[in-house]
Amino acid sequence: MNKENSKRRGRNYRHYFSWLLVTSISILIFATVFRGCTSSEINRSEEEIISKKEEYVIGNLGGMRVRIPRYFVENVEYNEEENTKLLTFESRFRSFGIDARYPDMIGLENSGIQEARRKEPLKNNWLRIAINSGSDYPGDGFLDRLAAGTLENFYSKKFSGHWRYSYERFEENFQGLEVWVLSMKDPRTNKPARFSEDTKDVYLHRDEKGKVAAYIECNRTYVAGGVSTCNLISDLEPKAKVSLKVSFAFHLLPEWIEILRRSKKLLIDFEINGTESKK
């Protein structure tokens, strides 16, 4: 009887240990698979977050926290002290460039638009917007200094009386702009310099206090197929300490007010609120 009980207990122990071994192996396999899936999902989630971040350029633009679609900007530079490997909404921009089509202000968001921009860079309505802020911001009053440097014979010590730097105000305004033209003759042609190749006219818009709020230079060319261009320089004060230079074809000059308004709005629309900046 005792022998029979001993045999039965032995079989029971063997069955128990076999069951325990199989169960342990099953648990180990399940845990390994589950851990692998979880790790894969985590890695994929991190990759998606990183990928989403890489779709944008973020930083501090003259006091505004901004998030800009990457296809909009190029040649992005931050202040030298910024850690470009760990950028935040407090990382201060120094400069970057934007291509935007006027008047809808879309960027180079797909290959078709990029190709159209490449084929006719100046004969269409594309704007080139160059931004300076942070350590490259020229400071308060820079537009008045720029105008003074061009029109009040800033170069007099070096180019006293030089025909290229002697301007006078034209008798009539144009679209709310003061018009300044060269006043002397071009010694190369003995004709008024204001009509010469490679010269520029200057246009100024002043605010109610008489300070320069927009400075525009337009060059001229008589080269076959050439396009005269204008550079409109202004700022985002008091919203942000940002200077912008908007380049466009001369035929758009009559629309300078709307070009400036839309360019400023484009930049301001990149600003995010406090909640978003914590994401």
Write a structural description:
This protein has 279 residues and is of the alpha+beta class. It contains five helices and 13 strands. The radius of gyration is 33 Å and the shape is globular.
The biggest beta sheet reads: 9 strands, antiparallel
Our estimate of the beta-strand percent is 25-35%
Number of beta-strand segments: 13
Distance between the termini: 75 Å
Q: Radius of gyration, rounded?
A: 33 Å
Q: Judging from the principal axes of the Cα atoms, what is the shape?
A: globular
SS-derived structural category: alpha+beta
Oligomer: single chain
What is the count of helical runs?
Answer: 5
List the helices and strands and how they pair.
Elements: H1 2-54, E1 56-61, E2 64-69, E3 73-78, E4 93-101, H2 111-119, E5 126-132, H3 142-151, H4 156-159, E6 167-169, E7 178-182, E8 185-186, E9 191-192, E10 200-206, E11 212-219, E12 229-235, E13 243-249, H5 256-268
Antiparallel strand pairs: 1-2, 3-4, 4-5, 5-13, 6-7, 7-10, 8-9, 10-11, 11-12, 12-13
